[in-house]
Amino acid sequence: MANKKISSSDIASIFDKKLKNWRPQVEPRVAGQVTSFGDGVVVADGLNDLKANELVDLGNGAMGVALNLNESSVGIVALDEASHLKVGQMVYGTGRVLSIGVGNELLGRVIDPLGKPQDSLGSYKVESYQPLEKIAPGVMSRQSVDQPLQTGIKAIDSMIPIGRGQRELIIGDRGTGKSAIALGTILNQSDQNVICVYVSIGQKRSFLAQTVALLKDRGAMDYTIFVNASASDPASMQYLAPFAGTTVAEHFLAQGKDVLIVYDDLSKHAQAYREISLLLRRPSGREAYPGDVFYLHSRLLERACRLNKDYGGGSITALPIIETQANDVSAYIPTNVISITDGQIYLETDLFNAGVRPAINVGLSVSRVGSAAQKKAMKQVAGPLKLDLAQFRELEAFAQFSSDLDQATKKQLDRGQRVSAVLNQAWDKPLTLEKQVAIIWAATRGHLDGLKTDILSEWETNFLEYLDDAESDLLAKIKSQGKLEDDDEKRLVQIVTTFNNLHPEWQIVEEE
Amino acid sequence: MPQNIVVTTAIELTPEARGEVDFAVSKLTGESQVNYETKVDPQIIGGVRIAINGRVYDATVSAKLEKLINQ
Questions:
Q1: Do residues A26 and B58 make contact, with C-beta atoms less than 8 angstroms apart?
Q2: What crossing angle do the helices spanning A472-481 and A456-470 adopt, rounded to 10°?
Q3: Which residue of chain B comes nearest to A47, CA vs CA?
Q4: What tens digit of pLDDT does each residue of A372-404 get?
Q5: Interchain CB distance below 8 Å, A31 and B64
Q6: Which among A442, A491, A493, A439 is positioned nearest to A465, based on CA atoms?
């Protein structure tokens, strides 16, 4: 490196030169004076030609967004503390609407809703600036969902399949594993050619740091972007975060790529918007939310799409998360988002406490469009699954009262126990489609009925290892053809029988 | 259309300065005779700020200094 010596007099002369040539231009600016400021909301008069959603320069490098335009005043939401603001101070319109710099270098980064890096990796190359609020793709550019998005979670891929371009809500009380489902899905995209955007709204910074470290550890950060507005960030940033995340996702959509976006979570987003709206003195409606909170979420989730070939063929799959209070799905925000999305995954505390992982309530969870995208192999094996489980849940409650059960009922109970045991899965251990098919096939075809129920997770790990070691060509075959043929099933029967015979200690010994 | 014009200076306008401001304001608005409000604000240090209907022409020393700092 050239070691050029710079003396202080050199610096002074550089400054001198710059100052001599400096001629400040006086340009007319849209300006106004602060009339009140509090809780992050600035009211200013003047600012006559301001546009809606325009960025406002609050001085000292602070920015705000104009949300309310009245005849004689403007309501501005500050994007940071802006603690320097005083009444009477001048604020200026910038002529720009809120936008974020996007680029492919964003992969693996953590940014805030305005595109400022929040990790220590420095700035990223901005390819273009895109507005946060965009109109969703129109009808003619869209196509129906026809490709699966593999979550790697058996219970979801088999019974509540998600397609690329779908919007599937994850809903449940706190601590039921909502984020875990989203993160497990991100982990599973390592070989699926899907870019992931994780929008964290009002979450703890410790949770974010932990999550980023975990994804980095598992190599998932290579295709993941975090857009973060933490619990300590102003409500305005939390309100903007999902829109910023979607704009980032649209950058990759424009390149014809498949993107998965997780909004964790939209209840906090609605609360941030409620806070802003109340401070702006907008009339409040049910649960004190403003009247346009439905539109807030519908215009956001409408941007999830599957584009047809003429428009690049990319997709944005949205997994919004909603946190309920005491399982109340009929509260305002949950019902809103349920009606906007194409289905929901409903998690329950009771199931979670009973050891069901993921704690999905199969009866209440649906996917309205995903089954069109489900792979044939999975459709073949998963058909009886929902029925088995539904019958089991019904009988389970009933069987608690009586000890004498007829053979058929007992058989159904046994089957249900095994099927639900086999759907248990650690969130950070996603499975490939072919492995899921093999396991669900074994459970629904009754090949586990002769095994003890408490060893089923052990059975699963060992069986998968066995398949990997001895029968990897069958797995590869299922993967490539996407369905099970008759001779594949015959071979599976052989494999399972041989494998189960290797472990006599797992068999139930019939007592006479 | 009635115009809302505010001229801010650091010290009270002298008669000569007022003539110059009259000229500037009529040039900016395109009208020969305009009434405007004057304000004195020592915070701007020097120069003049003319606000016409929410559009501000800021030629004050304080604004220039701020611009310089931000560069």
A1: yes
A2: 90
A3: B54
A4: 999 999 999 988 888 888 888 888 888 777 677
A5: no
A6: A439
Chain A: give the shortest CA distance to residue B20, in Å.
17
Dihedral (CA of A113, A119, A120, A125) sign: negative
pLDDT-based confidence at A407, cuts 50/70/90?
confident
> What pLDDT band is residue B1 in, cutting at 50, 70 and 90?
low
- Catalytically active residues of A, by annotation: 368
B24 touches chain A (CB under 8 A): no
CA angle A444, A449, A455 (to 5 degrees): 105
Long-range contacts of A123-128 (CB under 8 A, 24+ apart): A126/A101, A126/A102, A127/A101, A127/A102, A127/A103, A127/A251, A128/A101, A128/A102, A128/A103, A128/A251
Q: Do B56 and A31 touch (CB under 8 A)?
A: yes
Residue A22 at interface with chain B, using a CB cutoff of 8 Å: yes
Residues A386 and A156 sit within 8 Å (Cβ to Cβ): no
Phi, psi values for residue A410, rounded to 5°: -60, -40
Q: CA of B60, closest CA in chain A: separation in Å?
A: 9
Identity at A42, one-letter amino acid code: V
Q: List CB contacts (< 8 A) between B60 and chain A.
A: none
Q: A304 touching B, CB under 8 A?
A: no
Best of B4, B6, B28, B55 to disrupt the A interface (most A CBs within 10 Å) is B55
How far off is chain B from A114, nearest CA to CA, in Å? 20
Which of B54, B58, B66 minimises the CB distance to A46? B54
pLDDT in tens, A310-363: 999 999 999 999 999 999 999 999 999 999 999 999 999 999 999 999 999 988
Decide if B68 and A22 are in contact by the 8 Å CB cutoff: yes
Q: Which two tokens stand for residue A394?
A: 């019904």
pLDDT of residue A4: 60
Distances in Å between the alpha carbon of A503 and those of A310, A361, A452, A497, A506? 55, 33, 11, 10, 6
* Dihedral angle sign, alpha carbons of residues A361, A364, A369, A371: positive
Residues 6+ apart with CB under 8 A from A327: A173, A348, A349
Residue range A51-63: average pLDDT? 90
Distance from CA of residue A121 to its chain's centroid? 24
Answer for the pair A57, A92: CB distance below 8 angstroms, yes or no.
Answer: yes
Place of tokens 């593999």: A150
Q: Give me the DSSP letters along B21-39.
A: HHHHHHHHHS-SS---EEE
Q: Using alpha carbons, select from A283, A237, A288, A201 the residue that is nearest to residue A65.
A: A237
Query: What residue spans define the domains of chain B?
Result: 5-69
